[in-house]
Design goal:
heterodimer, A: alpha/beta, 4-stranded antiparallel beta sheet, 12 strands, 32% helix, B: alpha/beta, 34% helix
């Protein structure tokens, strides 16, 4: 029972009595978000996402995500499931991706980056918001037009073994998508296409008759990429495409993704937790924290000068394989863990861990993503003061044993 | 500095039905001194975890053959009776595992799991042990430790579980800690917290640490001496500054060239190592890395290289017929001066 259509048909949503009963139950459970209505994200100014950043305004935008929300209901009950709250996995994300660019999404586990990626492709039904793909709202499409539209957007998954059917040969895996979209017109053409794909991803042609278990991790990921390419997509969402691979093989796959993008004019959304990988592969990067973007900028600008306190801490925490750099760099240590997305903090979601937290605004008002510099959006009340050095972080020391 | 632990020619073989045994660790030798951090680095399948399990004697008896010596303050751990080893595990040497969820007992509260160590090794009563356990949890940075003591592993976050595991390892103040990929399952900000904690341990308490990891970034920041493993053998050993400034083994060199760096310039292309671990040839028939190596010469497929010190530096060991030529002698000198300073 998710998605816009299901949302409206949900009897609980329509019956005010049930709604109050539900709220009361939630309060009894003590699970209700403190003042749920109090800190709902304020409605974004009603402009398309592409207009929010100088990097995409007026550019050839392929994908536009407007205030996308994916909320998962938390249900409890023996016979009748009562919704006692929601996990706010993605809570109001707006972004735009230009045709032919690579947009990187980074964040720690539980920040909603995977859910956002799947929500964009509608592999998970979004709760609210729109996804405009080349002028068409994916979030509102009926099943059949959606199926047809999916030819143009494909996904590469994290676990190369888990995402390939162990009982399907590589040929069958690759042909399946082509059949579904009516692209396997003649046997000769199909086999020529398969050969072309295999050579594009660097696999031998005898791979067609083999099964996924016969390949190494890197080769399996190549099969996953080839499968995404069979239907000539324009957008590929790659969810942690290299995190399951060994470092030496990781570089092979990263280079492959870059080559394919140049040859086929692909647009990528790359989701990863490894900031070095994202920096390497992306043109623009969005940093996510607890279901929302906190900063978005070109890859160089973000890594040269992160403006959001969370991005700063995140970048300073990444180990660099150079002892000289490691010994001299300053680390911003954060205290504690990621708060629960079912009960996000009021105001700025990061204020509970922020070394720059201020007594006002931070814990009461949720900051909007505003463009501070051309193409550099950041959601922090005090970003300007922090950037100018006017505000200094509180000292956080490592826990001493 | 006298060594606390000396590993000599440690070899671990797994017997297989019908075929020759598989050698996971092949004559690995290294030493750890108090207050020193030694790193074992390599990709999956290089034998780094098996080495640590063999030191702790945690490998199954059936089907494995372990030879060599693991000398802990004059006692050979490998020849200790099982009961004697049990007394030492947790008291003298402790281990932190990669996956904190599967290394904790899911049906036993954290408090009981921590006090178990104290009761077993220090003969403490449950109530006194609980007080101590509370302090331990607090010392590794777990907020609200009294509540956490009563909770089960699934109620803790990943970083918190790893801290609980570290608290258990610390309970008897072991002089040697083995950390097997302690931060791989964690997010970078939590990783930074845990690494800072381990660093404090080594610096302030003089704990010897064996750090097992595949992450060269972690190695660069934490480890004093780096051992690069490939196919069960140490292929290069050097001080971290020396190793990162002038890696001589083509494998080490390739690893460093293939990882994207946060401080790299835009548009730089990565140089991957060709092939994968499955292309290895056995060490007996030459160099295991030869099929993937860019500097392969005839000797590589015929003569197995030996681990020997460089002519210029006695503390830089290398197992290669045709090592990478250092980029510039200048870089090595800078690194050399840098490493003199702390000692």
């Amino acid at each position: 029972m998710t998605g816009p259509a299901a949302w409206e048909a949900d009897p609980i949503r329509q019956d005010p009595d049930l709604l109050t009963a539900e709220a009361a139950a939630a309060e009894v459970e003590g699970e209700a978000r403190a003042g749920a209505s109090g800190h709902q994200s304020e409605p974004l100014p009603d402009v398309p996402a592409a207009e929010l950043s100088a990097a995409t305004a007026g550019a050839d935008v392929l994908l536009e995500v407007n205030d996308l929300k994916v909320h998962f209901p938390i249900k409890r009950g023996v016979l009748i499931d009562k919704t006692i709250g929601y996990v706010y996995a993605v809570d109001g994300v707006s972004l735009a991706v230009r045709r032919g660019e690579t947009y990187g999404l980074v964040g720690e586990s539980g920040c909603g980056k995977t859910t956002l990626g799947r929500g964009i492709l509608r592999l998970i039904e979004p709760t609210a918001g729109s996804v405009i793909f080349d002028g068409e709202n994916i979030a509102a499409l009926k099943p059949e037009p959606l199926r047809v539209a999916r030819r143009r957007m494909q996904m590469v998954f994290q676990d190369p073994l888990g995402s390939l059917d162990p009982r399907q040969s590589v040929q069958s895996i690759l042909v399946e998508g082509m059949k579904a979209h009516g692209l396997d017109t003649s046997d000769a053409q199909t086999s020529a296409r398969l050969r072309e794909l295999l050579s594009a991803v660097g696999l031998p042609t005898n791979a067609l008759r083999k099964y996924p278990h016969e390949f190494s991790g890197g080769q399996r990921q190549r099969i996953g990429i080839a499968r995404a390419l069979t239907v000539n997509p324009e957008l590929i969402v790659a969810d942690e495409p290299v995190s399951a691979l060994d470092v030496s093989v990781q570089a092979q796959v990263i280079n492959l993704l870059e080559d394919l993008q140049a040859d086929l004019n692909l647009t990528y959304i790359v989701i990863a937790h490894d900031l070095a990988v994202v920096r390497h592969i992306s043109d623009r990067v969005g940093v996510m924290y607890l279901g929302a973007l906190v900063e978005e900028a070109s890859s160089e600008a973000l890594y040269a000068e992160p403006l959001h306190p969370y991005s700063r801490a995140l970048l300073s925490a990444v180990p660099v394989p150079d002892p000289v750099v490691e010994d001299s760099r300053e680390r911003i240590l954060l205290t504690g863990d990621l708060p629960s997305p079912a009960n996000p903090p009021t105001g700025c979601r990061f204020h509970t861990r922020c070394p720059w937290r201020q007594p006002t605004l931070c814990d009461t008002d949720r900051p909007q993503m505003l463009e501070m510099r051309p193409g550099h959006r950041v959601a922090c009340h005090y970003a300007a003061e922090i950037a100018s050095g006017q505000l200094q972080p509180r000292e956080v020391t490592a826990d001493v044993v | 500095m006298t060594a606390l632990l000396q590993v000599e020619d440690l070899t671990v073989q797994f017997n297989r039905k019908g075929v020759a045994p598989f050698t996971a660790v092949d004559k690995v030798s290294f030493e750890v001194a108090p207050g020193q951090t030694v790193g074992l680095v390599g990709e999956s399948g290089c034998g780094k975890s098996v080495t640590s399990l063999a030191i702790m004697r945690l490998l199954p008896k059936r089907g494995t053959t372990i030879t060599g010596r693991v000398d802990f303050e004059g006692t050979d751990l490998l020849s200790l009776p099982l009961e004697g080893m049990r007394d030492r595990r947790g008291r003298d040497l402790a281990m932190i595992f990669q996956d904190p969820l599967s290394s904790l007992n899911p049906v036993v509260p954290i408090g009981i799991q921590v006090t178990e160590v104290l009761e077993r090794h220090r003969g403490m009563k449950r109530s006194a042990a609980m007080v101590e356990a509370r302090e331990l949890l607090e010392s590794v940075g777990i907020p609200d430790p009294s509540r956490r003591l009563k909770e089960y592993p699934h109620q803790l976050s990943g970083g918190m579980r790893q801290r609980a595991l570290i608290a258990m390892a610390l309970a008897c103040r072991p002089r040697l800690m083995i950390a097997d990929e302690p931060t791989t399952a964690l997010d970078v900000t939590i990783q930074a917290q845990i690494l800072a904690l381990l660093k404090t341990l080594v610096v302030e308490h003089g704990t010897a640490l064996i750090m097992i990891t595949h992450d060269l970034g972690v190695v660069a920041g934490l480890v004093d001496q780096v051992n690069v493993l490939y196919g069960g053998r140490v292929v290069e050993r050097a001080d971290r500054h020396e190793l990162f400034a002038s890696p001589r083994h083509p494998y080490t060199h390739g690893l460093l060239a293939s990882i994207p760096r946060l401080d790299a310039g835009p548009g730089e292309r990565l140089t991957p190592i060709l092939g994968s671990v499955s292309d290895n040839i056995p060490w007996t028939g030459g160099c295991a890395f030869a099929p993937r190596c860019s500097r392969e010469i005839d000797a590589c497929r015929q003569v197995s290289p030996v681990l020997e010190p460089l002519e210029s530096r006695a503390d830089h060991l290398l197992r290669c017929h045709n090592p990478v030529v250092p980029v510039g002698a200048g870089a090595a000198t800078v690194a050399a001066t840098l490493e003199e300073e702390p000692s």
